[in-house]
Automatic annotation (TrEMBL), chain A:
Part of the binding-protein-dependent transport system for molybdenum; probably responsible for the translocation of the substrate across the membrane. It is found in: Cell inner membrane; Cell membrane. InterPro entries: MetI-like, MetI-like_sf, ModB_ABC. This is Molybdenum transport system permease. The gene is modB. Residues 19-222 form the ABC transmembrane type-1 domain.
UniProtKB/TrEMBL annotation, chain B:
One of its GO terms (molecular function) is ABC-type transporter activity. The keyword Membrane applies. InterPro entries: AAA+_ATPase, ABC_transporter-like_ATP-bd, ABC_transporter-like_CS, Mo/tungstate-bd_C_term_dom, ModC_ABC_ATP-bd, Molybdenum_import_ModC, Mop_domain, P-loop_NTPase. GO terms for cellular component: membrane. It comes from Rhizobium straminoryzae. This is Molybdenum ABC transporter ATP-binding protein. Belongs to the ABC transporter superfamily. Keywords: ATP-binding, Cell inner membrane, Cell membrane, Membrane, Molybdenum, Nucleotide-binding, Translocase, Transport. NCBIfam families: modC_ABC. Residues 294-359 form the Mop domain. It holds the Pfam family TOBE. The lineage of its organism: Bacteria, Pseudomonadati, Pseudomonadota, Alphaproteobacteria, Hyphomicrobiales.
Amino acid sequence: MVCLVSSFWSLSAEEWTAIALSLRVSIVATLLSLPVGILVGYLLARGRFWGKSLLNGLVHLPLILPPVVTGYILLILFGRRGPVGAFLDQAFGLVLSFRWTGAALAAAVMGFPLMVRSIRLSIEAVDVKLEEAAGTLGASPVFVFLTVTLPLMLPGVIAGLILAFAKAMGEFGATITFVSNIPGETQTLSAAIYTFTQVPGGDAGALRLTLIAVALSMTALLASELLARLVAKRVAA
Amino acid sequence: MTLSVAIRHRQGEFLLDVSFASERGVTALFGRSGSGKTSVLRIVGGLVRPDEGRVTLDGDILVDTLRGPGRRIDVPAHRRRFGYVFQEPRLFPHLTVRQNLAYGRWFSGRATSRADAARIVEMLGIGHLLDRRPATLSGGEKQRVSIGRALLSSPRMLLMDEPLSALDEARKAEILPYLERLRDELDLPILYVSHAVAEVARLADRVVVMADGKVDGIGSPSEMLGGLAEASGREAGSVLTGTVSDLDRDAGLAVISLSSSRLMIPQAGLVEGQSVRLHIPARDVLVATVRPEGISALNILEGRVAALEPRGAGTVDVAIRCGLDIIHARITEFSMHRLALVEGMRVHAIVKTVALDRG
């Protein structure tokens, strides 16, 4: 029995790789999209410019499109022969298609609407009067943002980060369409589970990885709750 | 230290057209709500860009729209170095009181010395609050911290927008003495917006009365707030501010427009549009309950009795409010009883003499 249990929990090298890859893809995707998410959230919350609705629509598109469609659009744009992909390859030697970097891009795009939405709401909740007061005390707009707006919107930023991270961990459709399912390169946790379900006798492996996915997501959620509570205590009016 | 303001600004239907200068001490912008006081303060503070005009502090141009297209000057709020105290305290909730106070010092370049900082903290009585967070302070404490925060940014001038209006009477009474100390102990000009007579009377050295987006008069609190001007060596009476609206050269008379009424005085080299101050001795004002006819006096103003104050020796001072102006009449107690004068009663003030006040 003990032997059975321990053998159930002994992960194969391939499974470890899938977990490590998922974490790497999700962390890179989340951290790189954070500054862009803050910028776009700020523009949508405060900006008054032509094409704002268009930007808003574009950001939210991955939320309403089938993930496969988003993945296919990424493939067209960022594939080796795609307009953006070809440029990135020639200019920086950066290849996205069928690489883990592409998986990170797909995860970032899919999580982006969730992150922006959370950040935008938190910026809208910041009292403009406080920013005005900071200005009269001599702070330039950049410093007002860094010392007043950003600290006050921090709970929303953290929530956005966690949502995007969770989305990245679970992303499947766009990833598999854009970068396929290559073990060791683009086979993330979700893709590995999918692969297990497609082969006879893969049930144990699928269940193992499923439990690990649940544990990782729960940990992230709890960590964010804790962090948000700590920050809220500092910021609370 | 002279702040000079001359601006025109349209906000929807409301037109602001204001010019005045303020010097050291406390200058109050006084008027009912909706008269444009706060808008003027926001323009001076750089929070609103006026349509046109000039704002200067000594030689320093803060706003100048009259230099031709593309050459407009509009110094942003954070470079004006004006301390601004708002109606609400607007403390930063994520910082402690100490950090709130220090906020402006990060940017002011020449930080206030430790001794100055300690003096301001002591003067406002907020030393025991330094390690607390704004959420735990009372309304009055918050507003004191907010005043301290503005002072510690080493401003060239302090702008205060009804800093007491959000507080109840007890809190007001708590803060007013601190404001008086500030005025008396710091050499800092203050522009103070308020609609409360008591506050302005207590704090201001100079009052700019505003109505409907325009300046209605500028003078000392006693003149502008309708108090009795009993300057030494001068007869008790009323001081009124108006503008010359018309000149009748044939009759040799000038028409002076007050807030709601007009007075005629000998022309005496006046120019149309000129702002003048008039002195009306209280002994030269008669009171009538009906409009008199067949009388030689040129100036009969209609108003209501605002106050009846005994002045000793059987005399009474009757304050008659005509629009925003108050005219004082000195009559006998006997007359008061005979006319059955009570506060609020509609009366006519018959003005026998009006003197131009060239003080």
